[in-house]
């Protein structure tokens, strides 16, 4: 019995020497690392922003010209979605707003939406997304327009509240001047408003403007 006890004692001592670090003791996990926020993205500089916005503006115009309306979803803000305003005055209650998911869902469907009301008659303007983009938003070839960054070129008789509704937001404007035949009153402009998200600039608003009655 004593021999058996001594044998067990010897085996225990040997085992302890082979495994000096026991579970539950304050051991250090050599694989543990201090986590850092790798998702933090530095903000664009003013020069970088201007360059990116000019390129984005032109890409959106070309996409509209190509009638590749489904691709417009790529430019829409992932969280805030996009708002469409028929005229310069942005009406938060009545202007049509889509989340990115809803835009993607309905852009290829025959579903009609009320986008606002025609100036003068006040009649509601109902169209599919594709027809609204093709007939109203891109009513002229804005790829040949005059471009500006955070500056208004088209100024009519309707209230322009872009900077009140979207303070501190950057916008691009595409302006087509009027013709002599109509006393330059047939000018049109198309504005895009952007917001930065995770280091990328996305569309949050599309605003058309023209001379109103």
Number of domains: 1
**Main CATH class:** Alpha Beta
Stated plainly, the CATH topology is called Nuclear Transport Factor 2, Chain: A
Could you say which overall geometry the principal axes of the C-alpha atoms support? Answer: globular
Query: Radius of gyration in whole Å, from Cα?
Result: 31 Å
Let me know the largest β-sheet: 6 strands, mixed
Strand residues, percent: 15-25%
Number of helices: 5
Instruction: Give the rounded overall mean pLDDT.
Output: 84
* Fraction of helical residues: 25-40%
Structure explained in plain terms:
With 213 residues, the chain is α+β, with helices and mostly antiparallel strands. It has one domain: Nuclear Transport Factor 2, Chain: A, CATH 3.10.450. The chain is 27% helix and 23% strand. The chain has five helices and eight strands; from the N terminus they run H-H-E-E-H-E-E-H-E-H-E-E-E. A six-stranded mixed sheet has the order 2-1-8-7-6-5. A two-stranded antiparallel sheet has the order 3-4. Mean pLDDT is 84; it is low at 1-39. This is Lipoprotein.
Features:
213 residues; two-stranded antiparallel sheet; 5 helices; 8 strands; Lipoprotein
List the helices and strands and how they pair.
Layout: H1 2-18, H2 46-65, E1 82-85, E2 96-98, H3 100-106, E3 113-117, E4 124-127, H4 129-137, E5 146-149, H5 162-165, E6 170-176, E7 188-197, E8 200-210
Parallel strand pairs: 1-8
Antiparallel strand pairs: 1-2, 3-4, 5-6, 6-7, 7-8
Concise account of the structure shown:
With about 210 residues, this protein is of the alpha+beta class.
């Amino acid at each position: 019995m004593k021999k058996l006890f001594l044998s067990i004692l010897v085996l225990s001592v040997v085992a302890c020497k082979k495994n000096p670090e026991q579970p539950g003791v304050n051991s250090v996990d050599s694989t543990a690392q201090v986590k850092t926020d790798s998702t933090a993205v530095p903000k664009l500089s003013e020069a970088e922003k201007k360059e990116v916005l000019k390129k984005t503006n032109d890409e959106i115009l070309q996409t509209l010209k190509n009638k590749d309306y489904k691709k417009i979803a790529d430019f829409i803000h992932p969280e805030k979605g996009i708002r469409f305003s028929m005229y310069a005055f942005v009406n938060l209650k009545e202007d049509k707003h889509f989340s990115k998911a809803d835009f993607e869902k309905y852009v290829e469907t025959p579903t009609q939406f009320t986008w606002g009301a025609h100036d003068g008659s006040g009649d509601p303007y109902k169209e599919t997304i594709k027809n609204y983009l093709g007939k109203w938003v891109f009513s002229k070839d804005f790829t040949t327009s005059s471009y500006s960054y955070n500056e208004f070129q088209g100024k009519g008789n309707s209230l322009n509240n872009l900077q009140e509704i979207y303070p501190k937001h950057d916008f691009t404007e595409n302006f087509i001047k009027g013709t002599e035949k109509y006393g330059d009153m047939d000018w049109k402009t198309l504005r895009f408003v952007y917001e930065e998200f995770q280091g990328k600039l996305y569309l949050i608003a599309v605003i058309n403007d023209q001379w109103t009655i």
